[in-house]
Design goal:
This protein is an alpha/beta fold and 535 residues long. It has 20 helices and 15 strands. The chain folds into two domains: 4-293, Rossmann fold, CATH 3.40.50; 331-492, Isoleucyl-tRNA Synthetase, Domain 1 (Orthogonal Bundle), CATH 1.10.730. Helix 13 crosses helix 14 (343-373). Bound molecules: 5'-O-[(L-methionyl)-sulphamoyl]adenosine. 5'-O-[(L-methionyl)-sulphamoyl]adenosine binds at residues 10-13, 21-22, 24-25, 50, 230-231, 233, 263-264, 266-267, 295-296, 303.
């Protein structure tokens, strides 16, 4: 299996402040990246901002500041949010940085020189919001944007075009030969039926109607169309076309590196049709996978400020902790499917997984080891009965499914399997009835074995959950007395690694939340922006 891994989020538009939807995508990528690092993969995790385009220019004008000042302000909000959520990205690319800017100009010139890009003129229906041209059929009789439903306008302008016709056959062949390239698979049929089969027009790759973009060197007045600018971030951040290109060699050129782009469904077309064509034109390998995650919705549909259903993430983190918010995002919204945020499910999920399941297991185990063995974890000897054997086998099986499911990007399922192990360990306590074993001196060995198994399972579960529980897993280890050198993936799989260590009863790590109070609290958070707007 490949031991190198490169994962990217979309680069977000800093046209407004980040919300829970952006947080969702970035957090999931972070959980995946941390999971790979835990297992020893050399990992590079990239996120960033897509800072050019007409919308940003207009927003800046409306505020009376320069587009650069505007994006600088919003960029801070994004980087602050990533810090709050403990996102472990290795780089943060902004498309206004010289390293990106200059490389995009080189790529554009390269395309012109090879005649992959040519100058012509464009007439079509244009949606300012989506920054996209559409055909007559796509806008229909009402002349509205098929993506966002806003009215479109007829526009003609001189423009450069990318020769899609030259690459389309190769693209379909690539899909056929790499069935996992687009995941979930249903998205592939959508691309073929909606975009490729009806006939793909050459893609317009420059604009003359606004100036906030990377200038085309070949022709004054043109700026590079945002999608050619934006998509190339995935290679310019690694150093493509620059002097320092070590990361590019390691994480792109090396065929052994798995490359995963995680995106929302709204931008599938750009990542699975145009991006592979640009790469082909650059004579570069394709990403291994484009993974399309679902939308995070609210009860009344998409999140939007005007509806007053936007949840500000920082106060949520402040109240419930970063681990809790990350856990909710990963567990409650199946990765690859749409999900809905409700305050009720948020609180219920935290109580079920953390307070009732993991927290309960930890508290009971630490208390019993204190009570029966003065806090010293008994040595693991063997599986003494079927109960021991079953939980031990389940622990080993869980590691295997955790790895397999994570590699398949079935991230929600991967972590569900760890919580299943935790539930099974709680049941193992009930079935083993250590309180009864403790009363009979002849059953001492069974009692020791039970505690050794429990400590081993918590140590393993805490390790497997560490990509989500970025602060609490360390506290779990503190309570189990796990020494710093033992806090690694290999030792965590070894029953007996904790023999003789001393547990430390600490603070309650996952207290039960009062559902009525907390649901009310979240509802207030959601209502706040609406009230502000009304005021
Ligand atoms: N700038 C482009 C992407 C260029 S990538 C080379 C863009 N930016 S965006 O700010 O609109 O962000 C889009 C991405 O944000 C989506 O693809 C998705 O990953 C994420 N999300 C935005 N709103 C979301 C939800 N409500 N729910 C889940 N993800 C959401 O498109």
């Amino acid at each position: 299996m490949s031991k190198k891994f490169y994962i990217t989020t979309p680069i977000y538009y800093p046209s407004a402040s980040p919300h829970l939807g952006h947080a969702y995508c970035t957090t999931m990528c972070d959980i995946i990246a941390r999971g790979k690092r835990l297992r020893g993969f050399e990992t590079f995790f990239l996120t960033g901002l897509d800072e050019h385009g007409e919308k940003i220019q207009k927003n800046a004008e409306a505020k009376g500041i320069s587009p650069q000042e505007f994006v600088d302000e919003v960029a801070l909000k994004f980087t602050n949010l990533w810090e709050t959520l403990k996102i472990s990205n290795d780089d943060f690319i902004r498309t206004t940085e010289p390293r990106h800017y200059e490389t995009v100009q080189k790529i554009f010139s390269d395309f012109v020189a090879k005649d992959d890009v040519y100058l012509s003129s464009y007439k079509g229906w244009y949606c300012v919001h989506e920054e996209s041209f559409w055909t007559e059929t796509q806008v229909g009789e009402e002349h509205v944007c098929p993506d966002c439903g806003r009215p479109v306008e007829l526009k003609e302008e001189p423009a450069y075009f990318f020769r899609c016709s030259k690459y389309v056959d190769g693209l379909v062949k690539y899909y056929d030969e790499n069935p996992k390239f687009i995941t979930p698979e249903g998205r592939k049929a959508e691309m073929i039926n909606n975009f490729i089969k009806p006939g793909l027009n050459d893609l317009c790759v420059s604009r003359t109607t606004f100036s906030w973009g990377i200038p085309v060197k070949e022709s004054e007045g043109h700026v590079v169309y945002v999608w050619l600018d934006a998509l190339t971030n995935y290679i310019t951040a690694l150093g493509y076309g620059q002097e320092n290109n070590e990361n590019f060699k390691k994480f792109w050129l090396d065929e052994d590196c798995e490359i995963v782009h995680v995106i929302g469904a709204d931008i599938t077309r750009f990542h699975t049709i145009y991006w592979p064509m640009f790469l082909k034109a650059l004579d570069l390998r394709q990403p291994s996978r484009v993974f399309v995650h679902g939308l995070m919705m609210m009860k009344d549909g998409k999140m939007s400020k005007s509806k007053g259903n936007v949840i500000p993430v920082p106060p949520l983190v402040e109240r419930f902790g970063v681990d809790a918010v990350r856990l909710y995002l990963c567990r409650e919204i199946v990765f690859g499917q749409d999900g809905q945020f409700t305050p009720e499910q948020f609180v219920e999920r935290l109580n079920a997984d953390l307070a009732n399941n993991l927290g309960n297991l930890l508290n009971r185990t630490v208390s019993m080891i204190n009570k029966y063995f003065d806090g010293i974890i008994p040595s693991f000897k063997a599986d003494l009965n079927d109960l021991d054997k079953n939980i031990h086998e389940l622990a080993e099986k869980t590691v295997k499914s955790y790895e397999y499911l994570n590699d398949e990007l079935k991230v929600t399922e991967a972590y569900a399997s760890v919580f299943d192990l935790v539930s099974a360990a709680n049941k193992y306590i009930e079935d083993s009835a250590p309180w009864a074993l403790a009363k009979d001196p002849e059953k001492k060995e069974l009692l020791e074995s039970c505690m050794a198994h429990l400590a081993a399972v918590i140590y393993l579960a805490g390790t497997l959950l560490s990509p989500i529980l970025v602060t609490k897993s360390e506290k779990i280890f503190d309570q189990l007395g796990v020494t710093p050198e033992l806090r690694n993936y290999e030792d965590a799989q070894r029953f007996g690694a904790l023999d003789g260590l001393k547990v430390v009863k600490g603070e309650q790590l996952f207290p039960r939340l009062d559902a009525t109070v907390e649901i009310e609290y979240i509802k207030q958070l959601m209502a706040a922006p609406k009230e502000k707007a009304a005021a």
